[in-house]
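[agent] plan:
  1. take the single chain provided in the ticket
  2. run structure prediction with default settings
  3. attach structure tokens to the ticket
  4. add a short note for the reviewer (M.T.)
[agent] executing step 1
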Amino acid sequence: MLDEFNEILKEAFRSISDQLAGEDKGWVNLSELSQTAVFSPAEKREIIKRSRFYSQIDPLVTQALRLWTDYTFGSGLQAPETVAEFWSSRANKSVFSCAGQRKSSHNLLRDGSIYFAIFLGAKKQATVRRIEPLEITEVITNPDDVEDIRYFKREWITPQGVSKAGYYKSWLNERDEGTPDIHGEMIRATENALVYKLEREPNGLPLALPALDWVKLYRKFLASRIAVILALAIFAWKTKVTGGAGSAERIRQEYDGKRLDAGSVLVENLGADTQPIKTDTGAENAYQDGNMIKLQICAAFGIPLQYFGDVGAGQYATAKTVELPMIKMFESYQSIWLDTYKDICNIILDHQGVSEDGRKLDFDFPAITPEEASEVAKNIAVLIPVVPELAYSEDVLQKALMSVGVKNINQAIEQIRKSAQESGGDKGLQLAKILKEFQKVVKKNSEWETL
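[agent] step 2 finished; step 3 output follows
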């Protein structure tokens, strides 16, 4: 056990020493990279692999990615009726369903970038798929404008073990304008799909990258703590005996290897004195030391400490102010996805020949916090009697139904419209009724909170 403990300590020390030595030596050769890139393409691939590894085996990284997706997408982004046909189709379920949205978010956070392949078929049909980022081996841009991406080179191996390579048009280059690659060879598309690239940040690196080294050190820290506790647990009792080595050996033979039940009676004469060993593991200091490491991980993910299993680290009085930066962070992340889905939908609507006047791409994310949802519903309910025309707005109706927790918004709107027609009324009255009932629930919940 002591050998194992020593080995853990040596490994932890080596890890820290190697990391600091690498930073001191300047292990990233800045002179060989461009003005905007810190890591070479090969290094980025290794970073993505490390991020994928820790996102599966480390609880802190797993929790961080889960929180980002849960707060951003919740029960799923609701699409407008304009795109409902291809958005809800079985062919696109793997991308646009709630599970598909969550998978896309997870992949983007984990890898730093995501590639959507848009297949525009006959009869105005469209299918969207994700491309494995590690299969994209070259990005070919306009020689005079690096922001103008023309082609993506993809190299992959089929399930049958066949190696393949192909060039995909960027969604910014639908006309297939030939562009030279790094070798000067003129490139044209060889695959029948448009590719849309989304980067979480301009660097296109995983969310977990700033935390990975600290995650590794924290895992070693916990392993060292466990080694200490296990080492101290080897001996639980000590016995002082009167006499020499022979007397001590007789006591050892009498108790060694015997497991007594809890509550057993220990009988000994005046020649022996058995006492429990005090095993102070220094848990309080270790808790503080561990939190210092965890705070670096929290800072990297933008999530406070109490969201990583230690609810005692947060207080209700500070929860509001602590969550405000998180809300802003997730709102900006929602905006990134909103722009992406609008771009993809516009590509498909262009293919289907839908005029710009006939497009209404009003997507709605679920509320990030319950308080936000209740405030939206209450505000709409207050405004409708003052401005009755609001009840007839599809936007207001959609937002109101989302705030009360309705999952399938389009189906609910259609049911309200149908019910209003059959009863000779209007959907405005239906909406007012829904929100009136919701106000009662909100008021009751607020009364519970004051008890």
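[agent] step 4 note for reviewer: Residues 19-27, 444-451 have pLDDT under 50 and may be disordered.
[agent] ticket updated
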